Amino acid sequence: MSRDQEWTLKNKLILGLIIFVTLTFLITSFFGRRGIVEIFKYKDEIAQLEKEVSLLKKEKKKLEVEVKELEKNSMAVEPIARKELWYKKKGEIVIVFKNRESNSEK
Prior knowledge:
Order of helices and strands: HHHH
Number of strands: 0
Helix content: over 70%
Structural class: mainly alpha
Radius of gyration: 35 Å
Number of helices: 4
Strand content: under 5%
Oligomer: single chain
């Protein structure tokens, strides 16, 4: 081989290596671990989780207020006990109505 042919062969190999490395870098940047596509996917997930955390914090505050009220006021427990636990006072009669929806399903 002549010197000119050898030089062009070296140039082709170097150029091929540069193209390979560049393409590998670009592909992994977009689609690899921690690539751009994955980053955008996680940004959406983070935003959704932050909304959920915010809602849960609001619910927690509401429940804390309710607990303090129940601790302060013993009369606040009565309506909850009557509704959820079916408590009744001495001499009271509890009347239970069946749901019309449950009757129509049978």
